Input
Amino acid sequence: MKSLLIAIGFAALSGVANAEGVADLSWLTGCWLQTDGDRVVEEYWTTPSGGVLMGAGKTLRAGKLRNYEHMRIEAIAGVLTFTALPSGQAQASFPVKSQADGEVVFENLAHDFPQRVIYRKAHNGLSARIEGVVNGQSRGIDFVYKPCGVR
Output
């Protein structure tokens, strides 16, 4: 927790992002879908309003729910922060590390896995990546989304 507070404080002092940054992430808005055989990952993001983006995701395998996640992006203590509440796990928050046009990187090195959550606007969709270190080994998982309804 101390590391998270230090990271939030550092980001606030460095001016990386602030509450206005939520509106800059409007490109996340919508329904996003990734299919891989019988595995389907859906992610939904609301329009930024009231200083927050709300998100939800679910993973299905063979038509059955395997896990889900509630998410939000908002300014906490003046720092843009991604907070996730995955099924069966504790809530975790990730302060913004960097933000550019069409890309945002959130990082919490004190978290187990992932330590980073990355979103990038793609030509015809959205890409997301979670990454970090597990048992001393770097690990990453990519999600390449198309808009829902596009095959």
